[in-house]
Amino acid sequence: MTHPVLTEPAAAADPVAKDRDALLALFTTMTRIREFELCGARQLATGKLSGTLHLSSGQEAVAAGVCHLLAGTDHVTSTHRGHGHCLAKGAAPDRMMAELFGAGNGYCKGRSGSMHIADPATGLLGANGIVGGGIPMAVGAALSAQVRGTTQVSVTFFGEGATGEGSLHESLNLAALWRLPVVFVCENNGYAELSPVADVLAADSVAKLAAPFGIPARTVDGNDVVEVVGAAREAVERARAGHGPSLLEYVTYRHDGHYVGDAQSYRTKEERAAWAERDPLLRAAERLRALGFDDETLDAVRADATAEMNAAAEWAAAQVPAPASSLTTDVYGGLS
Amino acid sequence: MTHPVLTEPAAAADPVAKDRDALLALFTTMTRIREFELCGARQLATGKLSGTLHLSSGQEAVAAGVCHLLAGTDHVTSTHRGHGHCLAKGAAPDRMMAELFGAGNGYCKGRSGSMHIADPATGLLGANGIVGGGIPMAVGAALSAQVRGTTQVSVTFFGEGATGEGSLHESLNLAALWRLPVVFVCENNGYAELSPVADVLAADSVAKLAAPFGIPARTVDGNDVVEVVGAAREAVERARAGHGPSLLEYVTYRHDGHYVGDAQSYRTKEERAAWAERDPLLRAAERLRALGFDDETLDAVRADATAEMNAAAEWAAAQVPAPASSLTTDVYGGLS
Amino acid sequence: MTVRKYWQAVNDALREELARDERVVIFGEDVAKPGGPFGATRGLREEFGASRVRDTPISEAGIVGAAVGAAMTGLRPIAEIMYFDFITLAMDQLVNQAAKVRYMSGGALSVPMVVRVFCGAGRGSGPQHSQSVESWLGHVPGLRVVAPGDPAEAKALLKGAIRSPDPVIVLDSSRLWTKRGEVPDGDVVAPIGEARIVRPGNDVTIVAWSWALSRSLEAAEKLAAQGISAEVVDPRSLNPLDEKSIMDSLRRTGRLLIVHDAVSTYGPGAEIAALAAGPGFGALRAPVVRLTPPFAPAPFPSHLEQAYYPQPADIETAALSLVRG
Amino acid sequence: MTVRKYWQAVNDALREELARDERVVIFGEDVAKPGGPFGATRGLREEFGASRVRDTPISEAGIVGAAVGAAMTGLRPIAEIMYFDFITLAMDQLVNQAAKVRYMSGGALSVPMVVRVFCGAGRGSGPQHSQSVESWLGHVPGLRVVAPGDPAEAKALLKGAIRSPDPVIVLDSSRLWTKRGEVPDGDVVAPIGEARIVRPGNDVTIVAWSWALSRSLEAAEKLAAQGISAEVVDPRSLNPLDEKSIMDSLRRTGRLLIVHDAVSTYGPGAEIAALAAGPGFGALRAPVVRLTPPFAPAPFPSHLEQAYYPQPADIETAALSLVRG
Ligand SMILES: Cc1ncc(C[n+]2csc(CCOP(=O)(O)OP(=O)(O)O)c2C)c(N)n1
Ligand SMILES: Cc1ncc(C[n+]2csc(CCOP(=O)(O)OP(=O)(O)O)c2C)c(N)n1
Ligand SMILES: [Mg+2]
Ligand SMILES: [Mg+2]
């Protein structure tokens, strides 16, 4: 496939478009994600942090918009590019940052790092270093909700690169057969590592992959948070009502490289510039201004988020590093 | 999905419908497959043979019809239910039978048995005990043909149960991306072991699974050898001309259990009886009679096949069992 | 005590655990309506309903992955993999996910799931349906692996596995599947990680599990007739391995013979022999012997299988020459 | 001799083999247009064309399966798996197919393919990108496994692998990826299955490969300063393992220290220790020591990685106490 650009608004805009509080909250979440990523990159640049970071700048509307519709008891599985999902689902930036720093009170006791943040208290079953790895797990969480008779919904985020993995297709089939309350959310950002989607997916769209299994699917502008919420609302409600799975393909773009430091020789400056203009934060800000918010308010949101993330990083840097004694803890839960 | 019954003839019948020689050859191949299976079952029943046999009785038209269009240099991967594919591709029944008997001059030196028969001389890359295991291998064989610049075509046979495996979907995507000369041939016989297809596949049809990848696909009556050839001709020609992969779903039925001895409590006598009436041999015989062949000719084909298979079994039973010394041969080809 | 076949003991354990704990669910290929490809789940769907006992597509990765997610969110899933060989298709979910979730999440999440696996060694099933790859799973921190050697063990270890807070792979033996044995009545749960001495002895320690255990016991019987007293130790759990019990036995006998159905190189016996070469070194009075199939895939015809798997007579001979030097 | 970085030596080998044999093709994730996730295939698509050097989707099972089929039908494919951990997704094709095709077909078919795998141990990549599971592959009859320890080896072993008639997994080390070393000029092909003595010595045999080899050599240097002469043996090939060279060294030194980056239990060192406990028993003068990470997944932060992987000082200490008793 080629990576499409979607700018047509949905036929009927989601009510969130007019909901001042909700939209501001969404903008705030998105801004916090952006600022978390920027702050993380700064820590790397200044040598305070080492390791690999996969930033989700440019894709914030998806994480924020989808999680907007989820309760704390709903489950989410994420990917190597998971900071946004974690924050949107309710994880605390200071403990996330501590995890990046390898500190003992990071979400994973500082042993796992960016790609593995998990927080069951907020329904976050974990970011995942294996492309496609979280998808069957989300199906399992949906099965769990169904068997236990709850109305919990399970969401699995994945990149369009994960369409190459058999696990996605096995999961779609299983979810459809069992009518499970799971929403498959693809963030199609046009690239899997250094390869454009045209080189790795023969399908015209990711949404089409759901069709054979009778799973409703849509391709949606992933850079307009109102569009994101609209499509997700339908899917989450369907799942919650017991009507089975859906797949959402959100077309978006990552502003930065695959990882911090990626030279990005596989794409042009022009392409990046064009997508910068479709930045989800800019577009959300536009919508907010149309609803009467002034720049001062929006700047304050940004300033607060910057401050929050800087504080998180400062706190994290001051925490005690995970002790060597913790190397072998939590491998097992105990003998039977 | 539910297992459909197809009886509508194709719009334009394949020329093979009028080709007396070809049709008789197809009938002969199908009869030889049937007689091989019956003979194998007799060996088991009389205790001359032990182990597991998966018979393909009822599905002969697919193996015969598809392989009718293949040259000896074309490649085929098969399944646990592979006797028909082997015979249709040109394998000799005596060496196949010898393999079932564990004899040293069986196709695999008597060590591997029914599920692993391979014969590179006839392009047969092997039956396979792993559901879905042969599919990516056929993609690889097609890649090989493409890189080497030959017009070889690669065919992978699989049951509808293999749609559950990620390997099928990964293979479809790869074949479509690279426009490989491979034909995906599904024998949809309605059951995967003891489970009806409705319980294991959410899609309406197997053919639909190809659509997302832009791979042309058709659902065809697999019990009418003329229909089988017609659909396969299109697909094989497309592959040979360098226009890429196709998927064919042949609707068929296995007369016998999953394995010899299966009590088949998962299906009714009525269903089996109805499919017995749609037996591919009966229908091929009807077509031959319509072209002027008399019963005597057809009976002679059957009698010859019976005699051939009995002779094969007799020969096989008299062969020297694989010696214990062969346990460790052919594990490696030699040190670099 | 009741006499049960191995598979019936498995069926009993599953039934009792489904009844005891409503979080227990079972899914896999042909396990629900058909009652299991080999009968282990017979009657369970009828008794506990279609929600808790489900047939799946042929999707080993999807099955195990769904079990991981279900286990993380409040269920106690039991997934079935039809043959040990097919675990190859689920290794990512087992090794990168199930095994590591607890560690990666700093203990915040856990994966109390069971994967029941049928090991086809010795039943004429050929090279793709006969493999024993327990050492792969033993090598993975976070997994547990048990291999019951008789009906009572099949029941008690499966119960222990289901109640474990960690992912446990239970290896059932196809060769023992219809073997009968006494099974204690009541809710007997085996601990995971404790070996048992199946037959005490002084001259040589034989370590074996699953089908190889029963062949070793046959050999021990014949050795006794020749005045040689073999101690037969069944580790039962391969991960964790009860090093102490095995080393204690070695300290008593000074000689170690390991018998298994996996191939030798990098196989499970290597770890046991390595323990003897390390902590057990002082006790070792003779070279450790590993008696296993040759380094080749498993053949299908029964006469080759006989030659491939060490038979009781081979075990007897090996033990004799180990003791007599 | 030319000084090359490890990854450049890999790149050189690939280029030379593509030029030498038109049956050689390369495919994997990001290997063609991007020139490889880590640069190993840089420039190869440009030089040899889009037909022979291809990018694939993220489909490890499909990639390895396609390599098997291509190898059976006249090509010499080199498939790349981005991290060793992802081999879990291709185990069916590797173990049930590639490894067994020759045996199952009675020698009629063969699978001359290479799988290049990047092992992330020691680079802060965390629990799902750092695993060393070479013992899994060593346990599979029909596979070969090599682990080059320096640039010259990286080139020569890769060439040996490409020319092997059997499927070979080549384990590249991320930690050695940018290390420089002298690489002999010309077409040097390493045999598969022969260990090399990297540093001769008399007091203790240290067996190590890949990144652990370079740490062991550091330790050996320091041991020498203390008057202890360590013989450092690099098996290079883990399947087959050159038992003879390792046992010969043990016979010379009487003491065996094994260092590796896989966890210990059922790990590769177990096989080497088991050899010492078996055929090497007579030569063994002290317990075999395995120095490895603890039985836990690999952590990501560098301070924990330091504690996780045995460091030169740990190796030195272990060797000292082994020699001094
Ligand atoms: C099974 C597996 N194969 C390969 C990788 C290496 N890898 C990490 S991210 C990535 C690309 C993923 O692309 P996509 O799914 O589109 O997500 P994005 O990075 O664009 O968010 C790859 C190939 C991996 N982590 N896991
Ligand atoms: C990976 C794998 N999983 C499970 C099995 C066990 N098994 C053998 S045949 C079969 C059913 C296959 O059904 P289908 O593909 O429809 O082929 P059919 O038997 O109908 O010809 C199963 C589940 C297997 N051989 N391989
Ligand atoms: Mg992407
Ligand atoms: Mg079928």
UniProtKB/TrEMBL annotation, chains C, D:
> What superkingdom heads the lineage?
Bacteria
Required co-factor(s) are:
thiamine diphosphate
Q: Where is the Transketolase-like pyrimidine-binding domain?
A: 4-178
Has UniProt tagged this entry with the keyword Transmembrane?
A: no
The protein's GO terms of the molecular function aspect are:
magnesium ion binding; oxidoreductase activity
Question: Which InterPro entries does its entry note?
Answer: THDP-binding, Transketo_C/PFOR_II, Transketolase-like_Pyr-bd, Transketolase_C
Q: Which UniProt keywords apply?
A: Oxidoreductase, Thiamine pyrophosphate
Q: What is this protein called?
A: Alpha-ketoacid dehydrogenase subunit beta
